[in-house]
Amino acid sequence: MSSPAPAANVVPAATPLPGEALLRQIAANINEMLWSWNPQIGRISYTNPAFEAFWGTSASALGAQPWTWLEQVDAHERENVQRLQLGGLDMVAGQTLDYGVRRASGETARLRQRAIPMHDPSGKLLRIIHLASDISSQFDATSRLRAEITRRTDSEAKYQAVVENVNEGILITAAGRILYANPKALQLIGLDDATAKSRPFIEFIHLEDRDRVLSNHMRRMRGEQVENYYHFRVAHGNTNTRWLEISAVMFEWQGKPATLNFLTDVTLKRQAEQDMQNALVRERELSGLKSRFIAVASHEFRTPLAAILSSVELLDTYGGTFPQSERHELLDQIKTAVSRMNGMVEQVLMTSRLEAGGFSFKPAPLAIADLLVQVVVEMERGDAQAARIAVQCDGLDELRVADERLIRHIVTNLLGNALKYSPPDTPVQFSASCAGELLQISVSDLGLG
């Protein structure tokens, strides 16, 4: 197979977005190989330690030649692996691709790979996350078991010991019931042998997965083509849910058609994938937050910056001729504008700390009424519109235990929005009261909504 030529003038990978560190921390601590394909630049943009240990290379080493690692893939399977890498194969959740590898050391291995496409809100493909597991031992054991069971010559005793001790669940099912379950299968589904055989097996399957499992079972019994690997859940005990991967084949059991099912516990794998999906979603949210902040900050900073610039220009040009009172007035305008900008920056930093979970809650006894009045006074110094705020405090005479920074953040944010989205020269009503241990804050204005 010929590898595609690298694109000319390849754009370097972008600086990692907020949340990227969390994603990479998760990837660095899983046993599966993980790498990220960036379709915008036609390169592998990240490889985790498990990938680098197996393939003997990394994203930085591959650079503009992202296909060299495929030379270790079996020749007749490279095309499918390459298509999956580019997103050309069906990447529906649960679909997998198995292929063989001959490593540089001469050892052979069998991998199972799946691709997770990530899109932005408009549907544009941002990246493809690839996960691969080394299933060599499982593949070899399954191959030996299937060969042994298929041959079934004189009696079941020849393979009974293997089946009973293999680290893979084995079920034999027919007519909707479990006819045989090895000890590992009983452990995976959380049942004893008598209970497992006493009722239709569909009763042990998670409600949301029953239709899929039963449909696949019936279609396989009819000899139809069915997906070879898929995941489903079982209710393990009274509260726990366990994810299993199943692979099944038709065969004959005691002279009647049946299915031979191989079960593997993939609960931890599914959890790792879910953690990674959550990290990617979080990354997109933080990226959107950053974009919105840049847009808002560029607009909100314009007014105080203009006030600072005009005051400085007046002082620079006419300062020597101004009386002291006018110079002080201009300096006060500069201080007020700087204070307003500092307040906006502090609001953004506080929001960022809250979003990142890095905010430390520090309660202390406070005179709540005095604090609320002080916040409004400080707002008036930075914004003349804050004079529209009417404050009313009821039942706040006693000291209350609260976090001053958090109250400042909440009140400033609420009042700032009320001033921004209500008509000028209309009142903004701000009231606060205590109900038991709760502080109730109310802000009302004459704006829309």
Give keywords:
449 residues; Beta-Lactamase; 4 domains; five-stranded antiparallel beta sheet
Brief digest:
It contains 14 helices and 15 strands. By secondary structure, it is α+β, with helices and mostly antiparallel strands.
Textual characterization of the structure:
43% of the residues lie in helices and 24% in strands. It has 449 residues and is an alpha+beta fold. The chain has a 5-stranded antiparallel beta sheet, sandwiched between helices. It has a 5-stranded antiparallel beta sheet with strand order 7-6-10-9-8, with helices on both faces. The protein starts with 19 loop residues before the first helix and ends in a 5-residue tail after the last strand.
Number of domains: 4
What's the Cα radius of gyration? 33 Å
CATH class of the largest domain: Alpha Beta
N-to-C series of helices and strands: HEEHHHEEEHHEEHHHEEEHHHEHEEHEE
Query: Segments where pLDDT lies below 50 for 5+ residues?
Result: 1-18
Strand order of the largest sheet: 2-1-5-4-3
The rough form would be described as elongated
Distance N to C terminus = 62 Å
Average pLDDT metric? 81
DSSP summary, beta strand count: 15
Helix count equals 14
Beta-strand content: 15-25%
Helical proportion? 40-55%
Using the coordinates shown, work out and report the CATH topology of the largest domain.
Answer: Beta-Lactamase
CATH homologous superfamily placement of the largest domain: PAS domain
Given helix and strand content, the structural type is alpha+beta
